[in-house]
């Protein structure tokens, strides 16, 4: 057991308790009001904790909800393919920059075609213009205010929002607010080499620390105003502020990562215990690196292995994909659709790049994120809604669309798995989420089998 885990056992158990129905109701009513989402409500339920309910009638194809993420990451392996805003995840730069950068980075270390590489550099730096690329304009690239050259943004407001929300602690530039940039780089490298879910956990922790600090600043200011203020001998106000900063994460369903992670197919059941120990050890290593980088003395419980394991477990269980379609795909489809005569001329310029990209020309931005409202949606094998992005949805928000008529007051459900699978297969997959499905379809198929 770790020192922090024993020393702060009471506070840790308060951070990990399930929120009361009243807390759930208050938090989500507040969230939906500030986001001006009027179509749905989140309500506590007897069986599953909470659920999302329609607050109006929806027809098939209607937008039920857009759910901005609490925290999200682009997968490390996807960063070569797509240059996106580090805050809202929309594509940035230009069609030329997207294509040039990707091919240039892919080609590093490979055989060198000097002439082609020169062209790529020109593309990357927007000194070579491709025909019709202006029809697919993207926002310009804004640097990180901390100067890290690792994260870029679509706008000053996205850069500032990300900086205030979490990046100031996780930036490796000279403006970083971390304790030690070298330690931070080590943590990031470890996550890139093992599992980038650690980067998401670090964002969640940074976000909580920064929120705590801003609550504390307001609190201290208020206290200074009171002339005869009572001193907090026990310092308990600090923990109540931390609990407040933690609230968005308190709402998510959590289990320890090493307890809830699904056993990979290539691991034998007899190896299960040692597999789970290895996962725990990996989390421990990652946490030690994170502590060296951003430990905050006033937020120590956040750096316990217990909390770290539960945060990662929460992401594992909610398993929500972040997907943004690529404008490069649209661009090449457009070129392909040009009238024959014109296409021939244009194709001569674009063909070498298209061929070099190969099948990867259409790769979208892929990552993992936590969407607070989508994560409250319960599963059904005959769902009435689905997570589905429309053409206009070009950022990292989750988009939920009705796939049949939904009456006001009805629960909105999505399928966590491929619902076309057979009952037995669905059951096995859903076991990883820790429940047995009792949806009308499962009940019926169970009776008839
Ligand atoms: Zn943005
Ligand atoms: Zn930075
Ligand atoms: Zn079912």
Automatic annotation (TrEMBL):
Gene3D superfamilies: 6.10.140.2220, SET domain. Keywords: Metal-binding, Zinc, Zinc-finger. InterPro entries: ATXR2-like, SET_dom, SET_dom_sf, Znf_MYND. GO terms for molecular function: methyltransferase activity; zinc ion binding. Residues 38-417 form the SET domain. It comes from the Eukaryota. The keyword Cytoplasm does not apply. This is SET domain-containing protein.
């Amino acid at each position: 057991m770790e020192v922090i885990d024993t020393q702060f056992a009471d506070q840790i158990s308060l951070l990990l308790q399930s929120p009361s129905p009243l807390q759930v109701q208050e938090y989500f009513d507040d969230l939906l009001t500030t986001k001006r989402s009027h179509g749905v409500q989140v309500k506590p339920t007897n069986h599953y904790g909470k659920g999302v309910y329609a607050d109006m009638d929806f027809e098939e194809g209607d937008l039920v909800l857009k759910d901005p993420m609490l925290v999200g990451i682009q997968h490390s392996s996807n960063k070569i393919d797509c240059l996106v805003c580090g805050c809202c995840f929309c594509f940035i730069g230009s069609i030329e920059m997207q294509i040039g950068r990707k091919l240039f980075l892919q080609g590093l270390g490979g055989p060198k075609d000097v002439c082609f590489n020169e062209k790529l550099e020109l593309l990357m730096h927007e000194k070579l213009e491709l025909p019709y690329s202006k029809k697919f304009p993207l926002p310009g690239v804004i640097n990180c205010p901390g100067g890290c050259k690792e994260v870029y943004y679509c706008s000053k407001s996205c850069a500032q929002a990300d900086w205030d929300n979490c990046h100031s602690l996780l930036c490796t530039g000279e403006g970083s607010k971390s304790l030690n940039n070298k330690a931070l780089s080590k943590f990031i490298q470890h996550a890139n080499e093992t599992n980038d879910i650690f980067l998401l956990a670090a964002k969640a922790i940074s976000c909580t620390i920064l929120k705590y600090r801003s609550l504390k600043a307001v609190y201290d200011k208020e206290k200074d105003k009171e002339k005869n203020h009572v001193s907090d001998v026990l310092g308990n106000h600090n923990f109540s502020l931390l609990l407040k900063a933690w609230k968005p994460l308190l709402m998510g369903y959590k289990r320890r990562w090493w307890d809830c992670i699904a056993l990979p197919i290539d691991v034998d059941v007899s190896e299960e215990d040692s597999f789970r120990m290895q996962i725990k050890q990996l989390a421990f290593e990652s946490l030690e690196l994170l502590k060296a980088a951003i430990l905050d003395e006033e937020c120590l419980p956040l750096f316990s292995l217990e909390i770290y394991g539960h945060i990662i477990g929460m992401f594992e269980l909610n398993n929500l994909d972040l997907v943004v379609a690529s404008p490069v795909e649209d661009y090449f489809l457009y070129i392909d659709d040009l009238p024959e005569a014109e296409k021939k001329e244009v194709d001569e310029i674009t063909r070498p790049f298209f061929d070099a990209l190969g099948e990867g020309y259409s790769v979208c931005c892929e990552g993992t994120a936590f969407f607070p409202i989508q994560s409250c949606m319960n599963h059904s094998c005959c769902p009435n809604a689905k997570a589905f992005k429309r053409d206009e949805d070009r950022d990292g928000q989750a988009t939920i669309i009705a796939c049949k008529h939904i009456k006001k007051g009805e629960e909105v459900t999505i399928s966590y798995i491929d619902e076309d699978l057979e009952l037995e297969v669905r059951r096995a997959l859903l076991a990883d989420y820790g429940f047995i499905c009792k949806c009308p379809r499962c009940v019926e198929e169970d009776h008839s089998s």
